[in-house]
Amino acid sequence: MRSATINRSTAETRIDVTVNLDGTGVYSINTGIGFLDHMVEQLSRHGLIDIDLKVDGDLHIDGHHTVEDSALALGQAVAQALGDKRGIRRYGDALSPMDETLTRVALDISGRPWLVWKTAFTVSRLGELDTELIEHWFHSFAQTAGITLHVETLYGSNNHHIVEAAFKGLARALRAAVEIDPRKADAIPSTKGVL
């Protein structure tokens, strides 16, 4: 099983996260921000990645540190679970429809973190989550997971649907990218020989 546990403690947050890339989408998520919990649940369920995530953050200030640090820890756990990345497909993409919304997500587990974000919101909050933090979550996750990540909302009007389509698209693209390719299960998927 490709799994990892990260314990991250700062003056702003305490985080315990365990991931299993070869899971079935079982999750236990508690960040203290209900809408964020719902989105990480989507990542787990649709990515078939088991995720156990517990966050104790300084929510009396705002959600910024909780959102950022949880994404950093989750990305770090994914990177650690991937190990040397031997045998993975490396690339993944997904079109993610949700009612009136359609989002495209493409990623490369390249070791070169990058985020291209072409998504906008018309409200400042969804539940207890500031919508400006959603891009920051994706950026932080991409940084520590070591992935090049492109997220583009092609169209949509309901802000909840726009965010959920992005997380579900990430889930489906990540699921494809971390999958072991039976034709190259013993090889690093790079001409450099390392990712």
Automatic annotation (TrEMBL):
Reactions catalysed: D-erythro-1-(imidazol-4-yl)glycerol 3-phosphate = 3-(imidazol-4-yl)-2-oxopropyl phosphate + H2O
Top-level taxon of the source organism: Bacteria
SUPFAM superfamilies cross-referenced by the UniProt entry: Ribosomal protein S5 domain 2-like (SSF54211)
This protein's record includes keyword Cytoplasm: yes
Pathway participation: Amino-acid biosynthesis; L-histidine biosynthesis; L-histidine from 5-phospho-alpha-D-ribose 1-diphosphate: step 6/9
One Pfam entry name: IGPD
InterPro entries noted in UniProt: IGPD_sf, ImidazoleglycerolP_deHydtase, ImidazoleglycerP_deHydtase_CS, Ribosomal_Su5_D2-typ_SF
Localization (cell): Cytoplasm
Top class in the EC scheme: lyase
GO molecular function, one term: imidazoleglycerol-phosphate dehydratase activity
Protein EC: 4.2.1.19
Keywords: Amino-acid biosynthesis, Cytoplasm, Histidine biosynthesis, Lyase
Keyword DNA-binding: no
Main location: cytoplasm
Gene3D superfamilies linked to this entry: Imidazole glycerol phosphate dehydratase, domain 1
Family, per entry: Belongs to the imidazoleglycerol-phosphate dehydratase family.
The name this protein goes by in its record: Imidazoleglycerol-phosphate dehydratase
Gene source species: Sphingomonas kyungheensis
Gene: hisB
